[in-house]
Hints:
Elements: E1 2-4, E2 10-12, H1 16-26, H2 28-37, H3 40-50, H4 59-65, H5 81-85, E3 102-104, E4 109-115, E5 117-118, E6 124-128, E7 131-134, H6 135-139, H7 142-146, E8 152-158, E9 165-167, E10 172-174, E11 178-180, H8 189-192, H9 197-200, E12 203-210, E13 215-221, E14 229-231, E15 236-238, E16 243-247, E17 252-258, E18 263-265, H10 267-274, E19 278-281, E20 286-290
Parallel strand pairs: 1-19
Antiparallel strand pairs: 1-2, 3-20, 4-8, 4-19, 5-6, 6-7, 8-17, 9-16, 10-12, 10-15, 11-12, 12-13, 13-17, 14-16, 18-20
Helix pairs in contact: 1-2
Amino acid sequence: MKYIERNGNCYTEESRQDQLLEYMYHSLAGRMALKVLVQPWISKLSGKFFDSRYSISLIEPFVKKNHIDMDQYEETKYHSYNDFFTRKIKSSLRPISEDKESFISPCDGKLSIYPILKDEEGRNCFRIKHTCYTLASLLRSKKLARKYEGGYACIFRLTLDDYHRFFYVDDGEKSCNYRIPGILHTVNPVANDVEPVYIENTREFSLLKSKHFKTILMMEVGALLVGKIVNYHEKTKVHRGQEKGRFEFGGSTVILLLQKDAVNFEESLIKNTEKGYETIVKMGEALGKAKK
Length: 292
């Protein structure tokens, strides 16, 4: 995986986990095992363990392995691994851009931004490497897919070491939540090279009629061992920087679909994606401006 920081520092990272996933998705034996592992009941079963007090023993090794600075988080006693995994960071460490017309990141993660274009068959889609995602398949709605023609798909991929809470990017009117059941592949790019993970995985989405950025589609995608997407609100008024929800154990993804002419993104973010880099971003960071 290739990451780039906002200051331009680049990283190429290949972990043991990536090597295992390469084997799982590119070998016959691995793909046979995946048929079981991606089923939702596996994630539900693991979720019960991570919610139990027996999982507390996993916290300290995880902190050491991932070099997590616990001084950054609110001090509390954890009653399970999931309790620790969804820990709250100190608000002063995630300041929100004061410019209300700045489009901010809804979460910590590795960001890629793709244009939504029509393919040869006239379908609105975005392409990640060799995988084409049609919006109609992603949303299960051709009518809604047309709304985002000519806009952008922002993919925020969260890994184990990221802050696993997500937030609203603007004031506005939020719709009810729509859930699309599915299986649960990992969201690691290794899997995306083989499977269209975002249209196969369980996901939830809602619409935000925002004050500055037109109608934003906000989607949360579950992943391997993440059977639980927790959204706090149904249809209601929301505010910029207000917490929207959280993911429980594992890596996961937030997708924002933006309408045409809603946001002018920083050019470097688009260029990084074109070069195959994911940009490391933090919740509340300005990523662009409302388009006049």
